Amino acid sequence: xxxxxxxxxxxxxxxxxxxxxxxxxxxxxxxxxxxxxxxxxxxxxxxxxxxxxxxxxxxxxxxxxxxxxxxxxxxxxxxxxxxxxxxxxxxxxxxxxxxxxxxxxxxxxxxxxxxxxxxxxxxxxxxxxxxxxxxxxxxxxxxxxxxxxxxxxxxxxxxxxxxxxxxxxxxxxxxxxxxxxxxxxxxxxxxxxxxxxxxxxxxxxxxxxxxxxxxxxxxxxxxxxxxxxxxxxxxxxxxxxxxxxxxxxxxxxxxxxxxxxxxxxxxxxxxxxxxxxxxxxxxxxxxxxxxxxxxxxxxxxxxxxxxxxxxxxxxxxxxxxxxxxxxxxxxxxxxxxxxxxxxxxxxxxxxxxxxxxxxxxxxxxxxxxxxxxxxxxxxxxxxxxxxxxxxxxxxxxxxxxxxxxxxxxxxxxxxxxxxxxxxxxxxxxxxxxxxxxxxxxxxxxxxxxxxxxxxxxxxxxxxxxxxxxxxxxxxxxxxxxxxxxxxxxxxxxxxxxxxxxxxxxxxxxxxxxxxxxxxxxxxxxxxxxxxxxxxxxxxxxxxxxxxxxxxxxxxxxxxxxxxxxxxxxxxxxxxxxxxxxxxxxxxxxxxxxxxxxxxxxxxxxxxx
Length: 608
Prior knowledge:
Blueprint (H helix, E strand, L loop, with lengths): L1 H21 L4 H25 L1 H7 L19 H11 L1 H10 L2 H6 L15 E5 L8 H17 L6 E8 L4 E7 L9 H11 L9 E2 L10 E7 L2 H16 L4 E6 L5 E8 L1 H7 L3 H12 L2 E2 L3 E3 L2 E3 L2 E2 L9 H5 L2 E3 L10 E3 L4 E8 L5 E2 L2 E10 L4 H12 L9 E4 L1 H32 L4 H23 L5 H30 L4 H32 L12 H54 L3 H6 L1
Antiparallel strand pairs: 1-3, 1-4, 2-3, 5-16, 5-17, 6-16, 7-14, 8-11, 9-10, 12-13, 15-16
Helix pairs in contact: 1-2, 1-14, 1-16, 4-17, 5-18, 14-15, 14-16, 15-16, 15-18, 16-17, 16-18, 17-18
């Protein structure tokens, strides 16, 4: 009998994690499917042991053959059964108590921080030099060497173990590998603040830290989308100081940080026609002057020799040299010069230009990167939404968040869908096992109470509701239903044996209180070290402690509510079931009577 009763519990726990294995696959759900697969395999193994080894072991153990009788006198019950009996006899107080256990969730849901991909502590930091143009390699190397000397001089003070740098003509970066966690004396935030405050300045760039959010390779970004790149840069520069005033924002960087200075040559079409020149001819001459023209390879007895056409002193040329570039005329008139200076047919402008055109959803985009501290991405997005509503963009231009936000929303939708599917599958299986549509609702309420417990525990421990916390809630939802299942199943067992409703509820709760508390305490104690540690996914990913804290807080709170509120909810739902059943049979009987009455041939009766 015991083995038979454990089958529904183990089956439900496996079904709960099934949507995470067969659902939509993104990188986060792939990781979640590994967790779900591990749990399903472990539950299947435990079910096999519970059905074979444990009954065999129990059969070999000596035990008394005492049959426990249901206590009929309230005086012989303990304090907990007496309290339940008092609640069932005072319906108003019981109803208020059931509702009161939900109220902390409504309050603390708005108090905790929410960020699926928060900026967590990491074992490495990255400095991007943001080189503002293309420079000779030796100049970039000198700038990187200057920063490295500062970092090496403060290695012990800043908990730096090694520094690795790279540099090219237009880009450079340094990766700081930090000492192990047990040797750390400073947090990542303290290290960043010290370096940004004391780091030597360089003329060719603006070094700063790239703050990646855990679980994603993207920082929090905003994109201004439109057609013209220059207009996008102007709008981004206008929005930048507005976003910088948001509380918690430490730095705002626009796409123009990597802009290069370029010389624009604007040709005068009227003068070109007068001189008989085409824009293509002028552009070819400018290209040769600025770069070079590759000629055919010369072959000799010594081998092949590359030949190119360049202007003398090309590497030291200035804008004045470009303005004085001679352009050969195709048909010079008698007495006129064969060449004309470029400045005679064009005007010159020095502008900033991005090294590449960035597109987002097939639209040209200028990205704005936001660095923040002591806040969450959700709070910054709310403040940004309020500010951007008051900014009027030109026609055809729009704004939106970056890929990290889109990915966060997608992951949230997938997690929500998986949770709903899991709850639906549990409800269907319990409805079949209990042969009722009402009683499974009593067990489902324990999931709601567990989420309230997560909010309360996170508020007291100042924990951010991150993706790992959602995974913990998902695991929690598959665990907390067990207490409700064993309690409801025990109540039904006593009722089938002929015990009255209230006595069956009280006796079942009294029987199951100790096993439920033992199971919960062992689970909480097992997760306690993980909830206090800094163990990270893969060694450098998001930490595990939000997941452990979600299970501890939700399981502890839902256990209390299951032992107190679930018997009251069961009693209420049983009254509702009986009422609906009586109403249905009453309607059915009336329908049968009307069918018989309407089937009589009254017109023939009247003629008689």
